[in-house]
Amino acid sequence: MHISEGVLSGPVLLGGAGLAVLGTSIGLKKIDYDQIMSVAILSAAFFIASLIHVPIGPANGHLILNGLLGVVLGWAAFPSILVALVLQAVLFQFGGLTVLGVNTFTMAAPAVLCFYVFRPMLINGNGSRFAAAFACGFFAMLLSTILTASALALSGDGFQDAARMLFYAHLPIMVVEGVITGFAYSFLAKVKPEVLAA
User: Fold this and answer.
1) Which single residue of 6, 15, 30, 71 could bond 75 by disulfide (Cβ 3.0 to 4.6 Å)?
2) What torsion do the CA atoms of 115, 52, 97, 42 make, to the nearest 10 degrees?
3) Where is the chain membrane-spanning (predicted)?
4) What is the pTM of this model?
């Protein structure tokens, strides 16, 4: 779900860059020294998951795991996702450096939002832990898809169809993302609960 260089309009690029800088600065202030290892490991998970592309019609889809990053890291998801996107842009030319701000914001902002919405349910144990983690993964990807499609749509009328196709192509991946987030969170809660309590 990377937006390539040369696609977005100048105002969208500047707006995305400003929001990404703001989110990353907040995230860096909120990272504890003890949390650095978790940030690095989840950044690597995001990096790897985003490299596995599945063709869906004329588009490609892939996991992003931003719901998992959000519920575990909170605001630290911004620098974690930024580092992974920089490496993908430099090493594999996915996305690009000029669209780095927009791509970071569209992935990290939903992660932080899901942190605030779903983390209390997961910590308090109200209802099913798996269901809450599933919802976190599903809605984080849903919001990322909406933000990415909106960035395309705001860049010109010629991208309206591409924005719609991007959204519909990612609907099945949202379900897979939710299932993987549910299992990953449940596993971490059993074997490494201190990571989730940070």
Assistant:
1) 30
2) 40
3) 6-24, 36-57, 63-87, 94-118, 130-154, 166-188
4) 0.86
